């Protein structure tokens, strides 16, 4: 039985807790939080401990799954906890992955542990599919589309506009661009041609809606480069119709083979997720199994999804997998 700890109890933490109810070979030892543990109640009744207690439980946990935020939590927590545990996180600030890798690698080399970083869907499963696509079709093009899904960062940016009470932002791929890629036309796509943005906004009483809409659609980096639609709705409508955290997207590799490039191929990997955090958590749990297995074989250091052989993710033996899935 692989013994798991959860560090941080937000959306991902709750997702890992529920994913672990479906794994016969893994069990949850406890949840660790920076908040007062007495104020948190887990969905399954798993015990809650203060984060400071974690290091005293090093011999009771095989893999600590880190569920903190990428902006402020993981850059500190992953390397820190790697002193005591095999760790795994979903760090998704793409530009800072090399820096994060180096810090976690140094901590793991010292402690003799495995630190698996940037596991989820993007980075994670999408990264793997980009790698497979390029390796198989070196003569080709990559495309990644996101959505339809909620972007937490864009929703937060709208909430910071004066006069806005609440907001939800959806990122939506442009259907015409998807179809062109699927037809193998290898289009050159601008930011505007790939995605649109749709915003559902609750305005404070008396706020100028035209001003809010203008502030949204002209916001640099977030909306100015996109075709953006703004809908004003009530708080009740937002709570009723937009409470979920759906997401997804597609990774394509289109390429040619043959001496003259005469044959065209299209690879499409598509995710349609009702719950972004629950899916991400399920990926984390599968890779936590792999982290445990790598460590059991004597490996140490920082790893990513690129370093894991697929069979290490699955609970069944190589023999069973060869018989059933090959
Ligand atoms: P949350 O904001 O829900 O949780 C982050 C941390 O905040 C928790 O670990 C918890 O730590 C603390 N926290 C949670 N709720 C509260 C609260 N009510 N009051 C005070 N503190 C709270 O983030 P998510 O779980 O949604 O996402 C975590 C990260 O996952 C994101 O930053 C994102 O970067 C990454 N991610 C990666 C993906 C990928 O594909 N690689 C996909 C989706 C997300 P504590 O218990 O210690 O207080």
Q: What does this entry look like structurally?
A:
- It is a single chain.
- This protein has helices spanning 11-19, 74-81, 97-111, 125-136, 152-159, 175-182, 191-194, 209-217, 235-241, 276-296, 318-324; strands spanning 2-7, 26-33, 48-50, 63-66, 86-88, 114-116, 140-146, 149-150, 164-173, 195-203, 227-232, 247-257, 263-273, 301-303.
- The radius of gyration is 22 Å and the shape is globular.
- A seven-stranded parallel sheet has the order 3-2-1-4-5-6-14, sandwiched between helices.
- It is built from eleven helices and 14 strands.
- The chain is of the alpha/beta class and 326 residues long.
- Helix 1 crosses helix 10 (276-296).
- NADPH dihydro-nicotinamide-adenine-dinucleotide phosphate is lined by residues 8-13, 33-35, 67-70, 73, 90, 92, 120-124, 276-277, 280.
Summarize the structure in short:
With 326 residues, the chain is an alpha/beta fold. The chain has eleven helices and 14 strands.
Give a topology summary.
Layout: E1 2-7, H1 11-19, E2 26-33, E3 48-50, E4 63-66, H2 74-81, E5 86-88, H3 97-111, E6 114-116, H4 125-136, E7 140-146, E8 149-150, H5 152-159, E9 164-173, H6 175-182, H7 191-194, E10 195-203, H8 209-217, E11 227-232, H9 235-241, E12 247-257, E13 263-273, H10 276-296, E14 301-303, H11 318-324
Parallel strand pairs: 1-2, 1-4, 2-3, 4-5, 5-6, 6-14, 10-11
Antiparallel strand pairs: 7-12, 8-9, 9-10, 12-13
Helix pairs in contact: 1-10, 2-3
